[in-house]
Amino acid sequence: MIVRDATDSLIGEFVVRESELGPALFSVGPERGSTLPLPEIHAEIERLRGAWKGMPPVLVIGKPADLPFDVSPYADGVYHDGKVYVVAGNIGDMRQLQKVMAHECIMHHSLEEMLGNYGFAKLHHGVQSLIAKGDETVCAIAENVRSRYGVLPPDMQTKEIVARAGEQCLDEQGNVRVQYGFMKGVFAGVSGWLRDHGISVPFTNVELQGILHKSAEWAKDGPLLGAGRREQSLQEKVVGKLSGLFIGKIVGVGDGVVTQKIGRAGEAVVHSMADLSRPVEVGEIAEIAYQDGKGVVREQDRGQVRGVDR
Predict the structure, then answer these.
(1) Is residue 233 in a domain?
(2) Which of 10, 77, 102, 160 is at a distance of 20 to 30 A from 25, taking alpha carbons?
C-alpha cells in the first residue's frame, strides 16, 4: 500500500509483485532531511515486541535496494511472506516508525483480537439487531455481501459487513457518517488495541479506516498467524458451495478443510477434505475441478506439484 500524504497516510493502492511467496506490500513516508538513529529504531522495536504478543518477525534494513524484491525507493515499511521489513534509511522520526509498525503488523490480527471477545460480541449483536430491524444501510450492505459470497455464518457476515462499511463510512471531513454509527465503536476498539500494544501516536479516522481496509484485504492471502490458530478469511468461499476449476497454491491443511490461494488477488478458497479425490499438501500447486459436488485433484508433473522455496 502506498501512502500518498499526511492526511491519507494509511490509504492507497496495493502494489503487487507476483512471486512464489506472494506479493509484497509497502508504505511510503514523507521526504525527510534526517533519519532516526538505528539504535533508537532497534530499541523501539524491542519495546513494542515486549508489549505486542504475537507480533510478526520484524527485520531492519538500510535501504529498499537491500530487499530481495522490488519496491519504491521511498518505501519506509514492507510486508512480505509473513515478515515486516523496516527501512531505516527512510524513517525520519519515532512517530513515523510507530505508524509503520502499526501499518505493517496489523494484518496478523483478527477483528476479535483487536476488539476483544466482549467488544466483538457487542458489535456482532448490534449489527445483527440492525439487520433484524430492517435498517436500510446495514441491510443493503448485507445483501451486497450475500450476493458476493452466498449465505455466511452470522459472525462471518458481521466481519464482512464491517469490512464493507469501513470503505464508505467517513464523510469529507473524516467523520463517521450517522448511518454508520456502529463503526465508531470499531474505530475506538482498534485505536485502543494499538495503544495497548505500545503504539502511542494518535490516529485519525481516515488512518484507522486504512488499517481496517488493509487488514481485511490481506486476510485473503491465506491463514492468519494470530494466537497460533487458523482464522478464516473474510473473503473465503464457503465450503460446500464450490463449482468449477480452482488453480493455486495450498496454504493450509487441517481441521477437515484445505485452504487454497487462487487468482492474482490471492483470494482464499476453502475445500472440504471429504470432497477431494486425494489428499494435498501445503505448498502444492493444485488444480481442483468440481463436478457434482466432488473436487477432482488433477495429477501434474512432479516439477509442478510443489512451489519452489527460495
Answers:
(1) no
(2) 160
163/183 Cα distance (integer angstroms):
10
Give a yes or no: residue 235 inside a domain: no
Residue at a domain's end among 85, 108, 131: 108
Residue type, 135: D
From first CA to last CA, the distance across the chain in angstroms is: 24
Question: 61: burial class by Cβ within 10 Å (0-12, 13-18, 19+)?
Answer: middle
| Distance in angstroms (rounded) separating the CA atoms of residues 177 and 251 | 38
Do 80 and 92 belong to one domain? yes
Structural domain including 14 reads 6-108
